[in-house]
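Hello,

Following up on my earlier ticket. Below are the two sequence lines again, exactly as submitted.
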Amino acid sequence: MNPPHNGAEQGARPSDRVDVYDTTLRDGTQREGISLACEDKLSIARHLDAFGLTFIEGGWPGSNPKDAQFFERAKDIEWKHAKIAAFGSTRRASLAPEDDPGLRALLAAGTSVCTIFGKSSVQHVTAVLRTTLDENLRMIEETIAFLRAHGRRVIYDAEHFFDGFALDRSYATETLRAAVRGGAEVVTLCDTNGGSMPWQIEAVVAEMKAALGHPLGIHAHNDGECAVANSIAAVRAGARHVQGTINGYGERCGNANLCAIIPNLELKLDLRALPEGALRGITELSHYVAEVANLSPDDHMAYVGRSAFAHKGGVHVAAMRREPASYQHIDPALVGNAMRTVVSELSGRGNLLSKAEEFGLDVPTGAEVEVLEQIKEREARGSSFEAAEASVALLLRRSSPGYKPPFRLLDFKVIAGQREGVGTFAEAMIKIAVDDEVVITAAEGSGPVNALDGALRKALAPVYPAVRDIQLVDYKVRILDGRDGTSATTRVLINSRDAHRQWSTVGASTNIIDASWHALADGIEYGLTLAAREPQQYTSTLPASEVA
Amino acid sequence: MNPPHNGAEQGARPSDRVDVYDTTLRDGTQREGISLACEDKLSIARHLDAFGLTFIEGGWPGSNPKDAQFFERAKDIEWKHAKIAAFGSTRRASLAPEDDPGLRALLAAGTSVCTIFGKSSVQHVTAVLRTTLDENLRMIEETIAFLRAHGRRVIYDAEHFFDGFALDRSYATETLRAAVRGGAEVVTLCDTNGGSMPWQIEAVVAEMKAALGHPLGIHAHNDGECAVANSIAAVRAGARHVQGTINGYGERCGNANLCAIIPNLELKLDLRALPEGALRGITELSHYVAEVANLSPDDHMAYVGRSAFAHKGGVHVAAMRREPASYQHIDPALVGNAMRTVVSELSGRGNLLSKAEEFGLDVPTGAEVEVLEQIKEREARGSSFEAAEASVALLLRRSSPGYKPPFRLLDFKVIAGQREGVGTFAEAMIKIAVDDEVVITAAEGSGPVNALDGALRKALAPVYPAVRDIQLVDYKVRILDGRDGTSATTRVLINSRDAHRQWSTVGASTNIIDASWHALADGIEYGLTLAAREPQQYTSTLPASEVA
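Thanks for your patience. The regenerated structure is below:
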């Protein structure tokens, strides 16, 4: 049987085409700490579709009422590229498919594609399912045939396939044959426990391809930190369907990371997984999904991480200026990412000038030398500008003639303590100059920095209402040279954002409150200067990947 | 030439043995955001050595005065397992090795092993080094021969080898032959830009093994998320020396992660990389290095992550109860990790009882249950006891009948600020009970925590002169759940020491001053209770490696 084939745009030869199956919304949410509301799932699904994936697994309607709701809402959406798939298991032992509540829920989901998982391992059949080997084969075949009879396309996920194959290869192969007989268009071999090694995957996939002559897929987990390599190894052995999640989210160590697999397929194996040109959207997609899942994006992820093309070492930066390809395996623009030079004490003028270009700033001739001196001097006292690009931008702006800072700090005082019967408390008083007028105000907070933040916003809001749109999203503290104990220098990094952008600022002092105060004020000053200009003018001041 | 061979304990056949070369302290610190003080580097090196690695690269003495200081200090340490290696480059073009400042710095480091990197790629030789292909070959051979003549073992790192090989395989091979002629004991093929795929690595390593018949190593980066698979592929092709970093720290997307490679080598490839039984320490090592680098450990790391064996899905948890191996690829105890079901934190009384034994404490029957409750309750509010064993010991002591704390905290108040013309200031007032007498005192400091520390010592010194011997050696702050900005929970870890020992305590609060106050007070209480007993009795309460 030749199943209907999705996608295959842009005239790729069939063997060049890999179908990508995203399970972020189902397997991805098994990650500890992720919980997506139905609205979140719909929003992610829309982005995955616009990006150009072939299949989007929306959930397991039989196991979870929230998932059933997702499918209800998904029916009303016009999907551009993707087919929505609903996930479920083979029917229960000794139950007709039409009487199985899980399968009824699957049909009710109303998707054109259903994905069914079944057991491949004799151990799982007997010890977990507690049924017979023959009944398991019937469960697989009949479940798939039932869904096909109801007009569904069916993808079969062979759970624990590689472990099952190692235990009893002939039985494991029989389970796949049952799925093919039932009418599955693709048979996906799952490394459910994630501990297989690439050469094992490659050998088994090649053997199954020869034995079945049927389209194969791969579903890998990252328990040996080899999920990406395992997925690619399966494709080299002939699989043309790859399951994974955005950012590798998933239970335990995660699922195979599509944000690395897709660029590897397209750029290293010269296969087609996406519509023409879509790959450039992958960095933004990765950050978007992290944002919705309420997780900090991993800066060091391959291809899509904020640091994936960041260069810090002096030797590297010098070499990059002589030969741009010398420390990059691909052109970062191919995946919508950008090269960054990390500004630090090791920087030269060149670093700073290319930074000014990145920020779209006109720097008066020679001013970069002065700013570099300030950076070096402040780094010597404990600041670090490599993660505080907005502080660098402020230094560059302040060096421009005609720049007028929105406010100036004069004094601050913070009182924090604990009193028996009262508990802890924190209060801040501040004095700042706004438009040459001195403002003194105070606020309470959950801690001293929170109180300072509150007082600063209160003082600024009457003149700069935009301060209300600026939010603090992260606050990091590092003690430098810890051997001085509590009198060591403290470095504070603050991430702020408004509706469009996110930026980071730094402060350093032996007094942690003082360091926080300066990072806080820089963060707000930068946000106010952005807000004072046309938003679209500044949308490009930070790489696209920075913009949520 | 047959170079001296390190290690090979426990009678492994030579071909079963893989030398692990750690470069966390050099290549790992190229990661954006990592900066290690000399003391941090020494402490990590001691842990790596105790863990049983073969080589520890301490730094690049020719490029960085901080690294030179590390090697100076390292000379006085008796290393148990590891050889310390110093890193450097081939001599400059047209300069005799003895006149090259980098090579002089390398000799001054005084290590028995030197690692030299050189260029393999014609493009890099001409475009970056800007010298001739022949001169580059001489630079490689003469540099290594020079170090050999000074009695050093030499490891050669062939930078950009795989890219260079793709451009001009014959020249790339020639550079390795030059290294062998110079006397390098191992020739390490580096995937410097990190974009190679496992099958490419495997083919090239196999070809070089056949061509050179010389020990080979691998140094991989993670730009295609394949660094672990690439390292393992090289070993399968015959490499027996693997370079990487703890937790995969490194520039851009990181270096190859030893915390996944080592378990893969030992458990999946059945090779020996560590002394017998050492593998069980790898989870602790991973977390320890993250702690010192002030980075949150990645919970989802293969083998060592807190979630690596955590089960959340209902199906998985049910299956695990029927068949423990059903969703785990290995027994987590093999790597010192533990299975967790995510719903209920099953930390176990046993854990705590063995902790009490470690500390030499008599815990009254049943008290561990109560202490466990306290730990869970405090962890839920943001503390982390993993790196704060002295806080655990204090909880156990406080549960012993007859334990009388040396003091009790009543109130504190801190005032910190900045005033024009005056600069920053910080003052603390405290009220504590010492021997049922209430003491109120105050002190100034360079910051609010320093002022609190000063006040506490001042209050205690008349009754407990031993407080003068207790020093604070490190102070670390981590903001948990950074998304709440300045109102997030703050965790403070403090390391204290006296003449004999070093210990760590923890505090957590939304108010950073309050969190610091509790960690500070615990640190001093623990020190005073130690001082009240025979010093030698407690010398072994913390591993020797913890004592600076």
